[in-house]
Amino acid sequence: MIKWKTLGIHILLSIAIFIIGGFLITILSYLDVLKGTSLTISKFFISFLSMIVGSYLQGKSCHQKGFLAGLELGGILVFLLFLFNYAFYQMFAIKNLGYYGILLVLSMVGGMIGISRKKEKK
User: Fold this and answer.
1) Are the CB atoms for 32 and 84 separated by under 8 Å?
2) Measuring CA to CA, which residue among 76, 86, 20, 10 is closest to residue 47?
3) What values do phi and psi take at 11, rounded to 5?
4) Tens digit of pLDDT for each residue in 49-77?
5) How far apart are CA 102 and CA 69, in angstroms?
6) Do residues 80 and 72 make contact, with C-beta atoms less than 8 angstroms apart?
7) What letter would DSSP give residue 72?
8) Residue pair 65/76 in contact by the 8 Å Cβ criterion
9) How far is Cα 99 from Cα 47, in angstroms, rounded to an integer?
10) Fewest CB atoms within 10 A around its CB: which of 51, 91, 97, 118?
11) What are the distances in angstroms from CA 101 to CA 32, 63, 122?
């Protein structure tokens, strides 16, 4: 059973990490601290971090099957990213499917780590 309140909180937290990280990368890029490859790696790191953190927390809040908790959160976030990306930024490209697939896998891994780190109440 999906707990919509906790799922919504974790989605908002992931989006907040993504937005704040993007804002910091933009500032560092504007100040010429990040250029070229380091800028690209930083963008990927922020998106991966936001997926891992949100799905980790979602995994800690579920009772079983952390990979499904990560998959549901990752699926929603990838869908929102897909809509935002193609509504405002660019056309469809096959290479983006690989990127979205990596984000989904990272989200599932985060959910599995979250449920394995969960402390059982006795």
Assistant:
1) no
2) 20
3) -65, -45
4) 988 888 888 888 877 787 788 888 888 88
5) 16
6) no
7) H
8) no
9) 10
10) 91
11) 31, 25, 37
Phi/psi at 91 (nearest 5 deg)?
-85, 175
Residue found under tokens 């990596």: 102
Tell me the pTM.
0.80
| 83 Cβ contact list (under 8 Å, min separation 6) | none
**17-46: pLDDT as tens digits:** 989 998 999 898 888 888 888 888 888 899
> What is the C-alpha to C-alpha distance for residues 70 and 66, in angstroms, rounded to an integer?
6
Tokens of 36: 């070229």
Nearest CA-CA partner of 52 in 119, 94, 112: 112
